[in-house]
Amino acid sequence: MKNVILPFLLILSLVLAGCGNGEAAPKEAAAETNETITYQSESGPVEVPADPQRIIALTNGPNVLALDGQVVGIDEWTNTNPLFEEKLAGVEVVSEDNLEAIIELDPDLIIAGTHMKNLEKLNEIAPTVAFTWGKLDYLDQQVEIGKLLNKEKEATDWVASFTEKAEATGEAIRAKIGEDATVSVIESGNKEFYVFGDNYARGTEILYQAMGLKMPEKVKELALEAGVYTFSAETLPEFAGDYIVFSKNPDVDNSFTETAVWNNIPAVEKGQVIEINTKASTYSDPITLEHLLSVFEESFLK
Question: Chief subcellular site (predicted)?
Fold first, then answer.
């Protein structure tokens, strides 16, 4: 009898051990999925997923998309940008006001702005990291998003590559148009116009910071520190550089381009106007910057 029982017990123990091993694997996989990192945010350390799978980006969505972040919710303005259309297929449009919609999306990470309301409530839904607009320059902002998504190396590698490429392109452009040639970035509105400094998207960071191109003195005086200056159509010639980057808003009346005020501007007469789509240029993320760098390289050099 003992000879029968012992082999039976041995087999039973092996079966039980096998079952135990079978249960351990999913638990280990779950543990890996649930791993977190500590991100040092503006308001202090925040425990966030090491590999977030359901990100809601109320701000900085383009920066997240550039790092292939798994976005399930995005702000309305980013959603209208034609550059992100493919990446945002199937992604829900949400706002900080619609907490129910955010809850339904079951996020594991929320990215917001410090100016937004409901930050405490958002943090109850999922770990929430808030950034202050303009506190970081366009390159540092991408690196911070890289840190947040546990992809710092990818972000820093892009910064190094883009900086080198933009500087080289700037040297080639200055060699062609002259070191003293000026460039102004002008955008059309419903009844007014805007001219920009060196850190207000629309390619301004590339043109003035990375490429080292010059802005007209009046633009420097009125828009450099403020970031943007509003003016009327009658004064368009006063803000025009030797070259104009025209941020054309397709949703407003652009018939001013048919007026004498516009067509008598030397840059317009010489065909030195580079047109960009406002909707595709209001961010300073890698996707937008690479797109605009190609536009500027093509327009200035070819």
Answer: other
What domains are defined for the chain?
Answer: 36-150 (3.40.50.1980), 167-301 (3.40.50.1980)
The residue ranking higher by pLDDT, 9 or 69, is 69
CA distances from 232 to 24, 189, 191, 227 (A): 69, 10, 7, 17
Give mean pLDDT, residues 12-16. 39
Measuring CA to CA, which residue among 80, 214, 199 is closest to residue 141?
199
pLDDT in tens, 166-190: 999 999 999 999 999 999 999 999 9
- The mean pLDDT of 123-136, rounded to a whole number, is 96
Contact 111, 55 (CB under 8 A): yes
The alpha carbon of 246 is separated from its chain's Cα centroid by a whole number of angstroms, namely: 21
d(CA 219, CA 137): 20
Q: How far apart (Å, rounded) are the C-alpha atoms in residues 301 and 291? A: 16
Closest of 138, 250, 233 to residue 195, by C-alpha: 233
Measured CA to CA, the distance from residue 77 to residue 74 in angstroms comes to 9
Contact assessment for residue 231 and residue 239, using Cβ atoms and an 8 Å cutoff? yes
CA 126 to chain centre: 21
What single-letter amino acid sits at 72? V
What is the pTM assigned to this prediction? Answer: 0.87
Dmax over CA atoms of the chain, in Å, equals: 111
Pairwise CA distance, residues 80 & 279, whole Å: 7
Q: How much helix, strand and coil, in percent to the nearest 5, is found in the chain?
A: 50, 20, 30
Q: Whole-angstrom Cα distance, residue 63 to residue 283? A: 9
User: What single-letter DSSP state applies at residue 182?
Assistant: B
CA distance 94 to 293: 30
Q: Which pLDDT belongs to residue 33?
A: 59
Neighbours of 150 (CB within 10 A): 18
